[in-house]
Amino acid sequence: MLKNMNVLALTRAIDIAYSDAEVQAQPELQALLGRAAQKLDRVEDYHLVAQDLRQSLAAFNQRPQTVVDLYTLLVADCPVIA
After folding, report:
1. 13-60 confidence digits (pLDDT tens)
2. Could you tell me the Gene Ontology terms of the biological process aspect for this record (predicted)?
């Protein structure tokens, strides 16, 4: 099954952030990114995974630049669902 371009872009952004040394120093953030990547690998609904990740990342006060970049991607792609 060919993956959607949004899924590929999000997976790449998660991988970049996950590999960041500043992220690796924050086990909770690293685990969050790992869970999101696993959900995407299982072909779960992209929008639900992206929305959940966006909301979860918003709770982190200090985000490394790679996570800020990931969050920016999510904001542009996933409007807030009330």
Report:
1. 999 999 999 999 999 999 999 999 999 888 778 888 999 999 999 888
2. bacteriocin immunity
Among left, alpha and beta (phi > 0; psi -120 to 50; other), residue 43 is left
Q: Which two tokens stand for residue 80?
A: 């807030």
Assess if residue 27 is contained within a domain.
Answer: yes
Angstrom distance (rounded) from CA 18 to CA 33: 6
Domain carrying residue 48: 1-75
What is this structure's pTM? 0.84
Contact 57, 67 (CB under 8 A): yes
> What is the residue type of 49?
V
Query: Contact at 8 Å (CB) between 81 and 57?
Result: no
Distance between CA 67 and CA 20 in Å, rounded?
Answer: 9
